[in-house]
Model the fold of this input.
Amino acid sequence: MTEPAFGFSLVPTLDVGAHRELAVAAEEHGLEFLGIQDHPYVPKYLDTFVLAGTLLAATGRIRVFPDVANLPLRPPAMLAKTAASLDLVSGGRVELAIGAGGFWEAIERMGVPRRSRAEANAALEEAFTIMRALWSGEHHPVRLPGEHYTVDGLAPGPKPAHPIELWTGAQGPKALALTGRIADGWAAPIPSYLPYDQWASANAILDESARAAGRQPSDVRRIAQIVGTITDEPGVLAVSAGSEPVRGDAAQWASYLTGLATDLPYTTFVFWPEHQTVDQVLRFADDVVPAVRAAVG
Done:
């Protein structure tokens, strides 16, 4: 079994000091990933990539990723440039999770036309092809004509410091099949978008699509993203169906995540704390993570 990895995701409010404190605490207590939600249309949120640069500068080991980058508002050639630049200045600590588009009313208000689901998936596939070509380190110009994105004669570069993993936030069956075919990972949507009872079938689609493309299912990193609160006292966990946050003590959290690691192919676990505090992040890092590692070990 793949060694499990752990992280947390934050909302990019304007409180830079609080985010820096969370990032440093998470790194010092052994978490490996830090996700930053990406909602460019929210006026009271910082730009995700600007905050990513700030937190990468404040840390030395933790890996940072947008959770997930809004592709319609971030054209792939610029997204590739931004991610590669952050990866270079941080010594190879950036991964890239991308969403094909949601909250279309808000996206349209920023001047970008709405796409159908089929168009959004096609655009995502074109974006992956463009970004990988621009990160290739090759010297010949990239020419990739597409229906949604076209690169015509653009010189590749810069090459990232390490092979950046490209993940999706896929939800629907066709987007999941696309993920299994071309992506390095799946940052599973939180349960309010993809209820617990759909997690097994979603992973089955990924497995089937990966095999059909000549890949191993394990080639696609599975990232479970769990919203909730780590409480002092045991709670009642409703995690077999629906979308209720996980509210239970550290032992309950550890048991639940262990089940996801053994019964489903999840290898990475990202905590979305309902209350974005250092206490919650440290409860996860110090009380939950070691118990899961020991159980899965």
Q: What stands out?
A: The chain has one domain: 5-296. The first strand starts at residue 5 and ends at 10. The CA atoms of residues 137 and 159 lie 5 Å apart. The radius of gyration is 19 Å.
